[in-house]
Specification:
Elements (H helix, E strand, L loop, with lengths): L4 E5 L9 H7 L4 E7 L11 H19 L6 E4 L2 H12 L3 E5 L4 H13 L5 E5 L21 H11 L37 H7 L5 H14 L3 H4 L12 H5 L5 H8 L5 H22 L24 H12 L5 H13 L4 H14 L4 H11 L5 H12 L14 H7 L3 H7 L8 H4 L18 H17 L2
Parallel strand pairs: 1-2, 1-4, 2-3, 4-5
Helix pairs in contact: 3-4, 5-11, 11-16, 13-14, 13-18, 14-16, 15-16
Length: 468
């Protein structure tokens, strides 16, 4: 009998255009395995909103596999140890996986390869990005650190290959034991804070849901270039969690949308390329989530919430959506409620924490890591360092976004009414910046005035430069 082929699943929870499944199915019966590994990532283990989405994505994949007569084996613990155990118990001839580029997964892949017995091979495949991270090289032979030349180089070799359909699968005769999905305790219980996530995303998780989301976005793509900046508009693709969890491949998204050839496609294509670019950065800077890339910011005079009560109160107000800036508060409440935030508002809320409250970007990045259903190590980290001015190809720290002006410019009135209901009765002229005469008692005053915050941030930046 042909030896079983293990498919090691992580953030690649789909059957169509999934190279690990295709190559495994071509070699023999397939044994899909997912290990909930809170050991290898350390303090980068999945956050609360992450875990909620993961539960439902695994449930959807298990249903899809069951319909094909193939069980999904679930385990907990160190992924390398679990895979070695399953390999021995099943007599596997090989393990197939989609490459991952987070530093803990790269180490796990190396450890697994080293630990396999003779005759059992680890086959690593690409497929979570348009191009394999690290494959594009500059004229000098290095990896790209600036987005624009990276994007030009990528477009010169794209489009990606046509996506493959889901393969026919043969089940293993006697699969090893696994755990029930509920045993992974991915869902919150005491307290159950996920009511907003259920209301927003129930029935919208998994591969079939990702395909439906792509179809809906395709009908709105032509307006994307403009609508994406308006928080009240239904302009975002909402594909980010599906792409993050690998419920749909970026190649499939590309080929479904590229034929429209609109300005909307040009803009969205850039978002897909940005995903690839950030993966290239963590290949070069594995500690991107922990360390300033521009090392002069190591001496920046941040206000420290662990030692300064006023800074701690500011951080808490930001997390809770109680800053007194309506568009910032709307974004932070949207994030807490549904695990997702409008893309422009992500920039505004990040800029507010870093420059208005003068709090280190790492506090914000970790909050997003725990509360976003699409929290991605490379994307989340680079976007925070971009806003803070501390990263590769980042904006200047001295560019300080004005949230009140941005709110009015991008017509956020209805967005604010939805997420900050205590302001819902204000008219469009007042809601972006409610003065004392119309501000409800239940809504807090501004933590800091914009002009004061701007001058404080610029003074801190000058102090850092003077200390060089």
């Amino acid at each position: 009998m042909t030896a079983p082929q293990i498919v090691w699943l992580r953030r690649d929870l789909r059957l169509a255009d999934q190279a690990a499944f295709h190559h495994a199915a071509a070699r023999g019966p397939v044994l899909p395995v997912f290990v909930l590994d809170d050991v290898r990532p350390g303090d980068r283990r999945p956050g609360g909103a992450h875990r909620w989405w993961l539960h439902h994505s695994l449930a959807a994949l298990a249903d899809d596999l069951r319909a094909r007569g193939v069980p999904l084996v679930l385990r907990q613990g160190d992924s390398v140890a679990q895979l070695l155990d399953i390999s021995r118990a099943s007599g596997a001839g090989g393990i197939h996986a989609i490459r991952h580029y987070e530093p803990w997964w790269r180490k796990a892949e190396g450890d697994l390869k080293d630990g396999l017995p003779a005759g059992v091979t680890l086959h690593l495949h690409d497929g979570n990005y348009l191009l394999p991270p690290g494959c594009l090289r500059t004229g000098g032979g290095g990896l790209y650190k600036v987005y624009s030349p990276f994007a030009r180089a990528a477009l010169a070799v794209l489009p990606p290959a046509e996506p493959l359909p889901a393969p026919a699968l043969q089940s293993v005769a006697d699969p090893p034991r696994g755990e029930h999905l509920d045993d992974l305790t991915l869902l919150p219980t005491r307290p159950d804070w996920a009511g907003g996530l259920r209301a927003c995303w129930n029935g919208a998780v998994g591969e079939a849901a990702a395909v439906r989301a792509l179809e809906r976005f395709s009908a709105r793509l032509a307006a994307y270039a403009e609508a994406r900046n308006q928080p009240a508009a239904d302009g975002s693709s909402r594909l980010s969690p599906h792409l993050h969890w690998g419920e749909i491949s970026p190649a499939r998204v590309w080929h479904a949308l590229a034929e429209q050839g609109s300005a909307g496609w040009d803009k969205f294509r850039g978002e897909l390329l940005w995903r690839d670019f950030t993966q290239n950065l963590i290949v070069q800077f594995p500690r991107y989530g922990e360390a300033n890339i521009r090392r002069d910011f190591d001496r920046f005079p941040w206000r420290d919430p662990t030692a300064d009560d006023e800074a701690a109160a500011g951080l808490a107000a930001w997390q809770q959506g109680r800053t007194g800036y309506p568009i910032v508060d709307a974004g932070m409440r949207q994030l807490w409620t549904i695990g997702w935030m409008h893309n422009r508002v992500r920039m505004l809320t990040a800029s507010f924490l870093v420059k208005h409250l003068l709090i280190d970007w790492r506090h914000g990045e970790r909050w997003f890591w725990d509360t976003l259903v699409d929290a991605d190590y490379a994307n989340n980290t680079h976007n925070w360092q971009w806003v803070a001015g501390t990263g590769v190809d980042a904006q200047q720290f001295t560019r300080i976004m004005a949230p009140l002006a941005q709110s009015e410019k991008f017509d956020a009135a209805q967005y604010i009414r939805r997420w900050v209901p205590e302001l819902a009765d204000l008219d469009d002229a007042a809601i972006h910046d409610p003065g004392d005469a119309v501000r409800p008692r239940t809504y807090p005053p501004r933590r800091v005035e914009h002009g004061e915050a701007r001058e404080r941030a610029l003074a801190a930046y000058r102090r850092m430069k003077a200390d060089a």
